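TL;DR need C-alpha cells for one chain.
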Amino acid sequence: MTKLSFIVRSICVTLALTGIASAEDRGPEMNPYECLGRYEAATGNRSMTQVRAELEKKLNPLYEPGEPPTIRAMKACVVAMLESRLGDSDAPKHYAMAIQEDPEEPGYEYWFGHYWNGFRGARGPIVENAEDHYYRALDKLKAKKAAGKYRDYHAVVEEWTRKQLLVSYQEDGLHLGGKNSFSISAQYAVSKDTRDFFRNNEMRLFTGELMFASSAARGLGVDKPGAKSQVYSLVRTPLRMREEARLRLRLNAVGAFDVSAADERCTGDCQVKTYYLVPPAPNGVFTPVKLQEIGGGYERVFPIYPLFDFKARANVKYIDRKGVVEFLPNLHEKFLLYEAHPSFSHFVGPDKIDLDLVWVQMNVPNITFGPPAEAQRGKTIRAANLEYAIYRPFVLPEMRNGVVGMHRTPTRGWYWNLGVADDDDVYGIKTVRRHDYYLATRFEGAGNWDLSLQGTYSDSTITALDLNTGVVANDTVAPMKSASFRTTAIIQRRIINPDAIPGISGKAIDVDMINFVVPITWDKGLSGTPCYDFVSTDAITGQPHHAFNSPYTTAANCYKTYENIRGGVEIWAKFFGVGHAGPAILTTIGYDYQYFYQIKKAENSVHLNLRMGWDWQRL
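>> reply
TL;DR here they are.
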C-alpha cells in the first residue's frame, strides 16, 4: 500500500466513524406521533388548570443534561402542543425548537403547520404560514425516501400532510400548484324560496311591501277587488339562480388576490313592479330581476401576536342590475360596490374571542325622472359580530361500561354570539332603516349532535329629511314602522365527522363530511304603525268606509300579517378530490315548509348550493 493510498483510506475511515458517532449523538429515531400521545396523556380527563400544571412541570426543566437532540425535540413538541391547547403565544417558539433539534424529521414540520391551520387565525387559517411547513414536510419525506429512512409512520405523516393542504386550500377551490400559484373556484345556487340567497328576513320584507302599498304614498289601501289577493300574493317563492366564478392568485409573502364574475337571476314573482297595482293586475304586479357583477378582491390573515390575529378582506365590484326600480322594470342600474370585512381573533386562555366587522357601500346612481328631491339613491350596510368560543372541556353525563356518570369531556366548542346589523336604503329625502340585534349560542357536542339557538330582534322604519329645516325624523306622510322577533333553532347530526378523518384515501372523490340538519324558525310580530286606514262615509249607506279592509288583520295590527313558522331538513356534505391539489366541493340541499298562519298560506321552499371554494363568512 502506498503512502498516499494509506492516507486516503485513513481519511475515509475517519469520516465514516465521525458520521456514525454524529448519528449516535443525535439520539434514537423518534416517532413524531409520540408527541401526540404524550400530549393526549397530559390532557386526558384533566381541567385546564391541571393541564397548565402539566405544562409547568414539563418546562421546569425542559431538558435534562446530556439528553440527545431527538429527545429534546420530542419534549419541545409536547410543550408546544400543550401551549397550543392553552392559547399561549410561546407555542411557535417551541415548535421551532423541535424542528431545530431534529431537522430531518418531517413530522415536526407537520405539527407546526397544523398549529397555524387548526389553532390560529381569524375567520380562516393562516394559510401562508401553514403551507410553508407542509411543503417542508413533503420535502423532508422525499429526502427520507431517497436515504432509505422512510418508516411506516412517515406514510401516515405524508397522508395527514396532504389532507391538511387540502384543508388549507379548501376556500380557494381547485389549487393549480404549490405556493405562489392560481386557484379556480365556482359556485352554483338555485332556490325557490321566500328568502333570498343571503337569507334576509322575509317577514320584514313582506310587511314593508304591504305597508307601502296601503300607505298614503300610494293612496290605495287594500279595500279593492282583489284586496285579499294583494295581501296573499306578496308572500311568494320566486325562482332564483346564481353562478359565480373566481380566479385567485395566492402569493405566500403577500396574500390572495381575486378576480370574480357572477350572474344572478330572479324570475317569476320577484320584485314589485308598481305598488299602485293590486293582484291580479292585467300586466302583472311583479317583474323579474337580473344582476351581473365583476370584481376584484384581496384577503390575508396576519399573525400579530401577542395582540391578535387579523384578517383583512376587501372587494370592489361593478354591478349591473335590472328590474329593481319601481315603474321602470327595464332600467339598468350600473354602479360600484365596496365592501370590507375585517376580523380580529385573540385567545383568552384556552378559549377564543373573535370580532367580525362588515361595511358595504353601494353607489347606486340617482334616478333621472320624477321630482329632484326624490332622485338620490344609495345603500349602506354595517354589521358587527362578537363571538366567544369556549374550548375547555365540560363535565357532562356519559355512559361508560353501562353506567351513566359525570365525566370531563372535550367538545368541539360552545360558541356565544352577540351581533348587530344596520341596513340603510336611501330614496331621495327618505331613508328606509333596518336593524337586527341578535344573541346566539351553538353547542358542538362531544358526540355527533350539535344544537344552535338564536333570537333576533328586527325592526324597520322610514325617516324623512325636511328640506326646510334640515331635520331628519320619522316620515309623517307614509309612516311605516314594524318590529318582529325571530327564534331560530338548528339541530345537527354529524353522520360523517371530518375531525375523525385526519388523512385521505386514494379515491377520486372522497367524502369528508355529511351532516343532517333540521332548521326551525318562528317569526312573531311585536309592534308597528298602522297600515293606512283612511275612513270615509259611503254615499248610499252612510256607513263608514275603511281603506284598509283586510280579512286577516286590522289596520292597527297589520304588522302581524306575515307571522309564520318554518321547518325543514337539509343535507350538508363536503368532498375532496385526489392529492393535495384536489378541490373541496361543498354541497347543501334542503327543503322547508313555511306556514303563514295569519293569512293561512303555506309555501314549500327548496334550495341547492354547489360550491368549489367558498367564503368563510357572509353577514
